[in-house]
What does this fold into?
Amino acid sequence: MHKGFLIVLEGIDGTGKSTQAEILMMRLRKSGYDVVYFREPSQSKWGREIKRKALHPDSLSPEEELDLFLKDRKENVEKNLKPALVRKKIVILDRYYFSTIAYQGAKGIDQERIRRMNEDFVVDPDLVFVLDVDPQEGLNRIKKRKKKDKLFEREEYLVKVRDIFRSFKGEKFIHIDASRPKKDISAEIEETVLDYLKIVGVRPH
Ligand code: TYD
It folds into this structure.
């Protein structure tokens, strides 16, 4: 029996995935589905610690970063994801462990090791949208939020992160060209999700 439905949005900084998550949530609610939204890093004490330390990019080693993201995710899975899925909700999740494989993998940690550490405890997602955009374009969109001298360094890093995101293959991954107009992207995501829900027999309330 299907217990809820987990939809993940992934992508590098500046793909517009949070906006798309919000649009998708509104559309699904309009169609009568019971939807909740979560994001990682979460609101937990670990998530807050990540946010605090992320303001000083080199204050943590890659392994320390990995450890914090795993702690935050464990809490998110137990406190937020599992309870919502048991109640048969549709969960929209803004970033999940594919971000860890991509971002911490791009810092040199073995990607398969990161995957295994996560797959030990996570809930398997049903659909994973990977929003893809050129790192330079992504950074341009969020430029106001970053210091200019850090942008080039960030771009080089995001090129590696993007390559890892693009390497994810399998039935549940849907790679989306996020350089297109916002409404085209949201239409594609909505259509894919509604088709999928129909196929697996998840109906509105
Ligand atoms: P997020 O809050 O999604 O930032 P934004 O809204 O700017 O996209 O994520 C914060 C940063 O944390 C983002 O640069 C990606 C990074 N991150 C990791 O490095 N590893 C992870 O496992 C996750 C979930 C995020």
User: Anything to note?
Assistant: Helices lie at 17-30, 45-54, 62-86, 97-103, 111-119, 135-141, 151-167, 182-200.
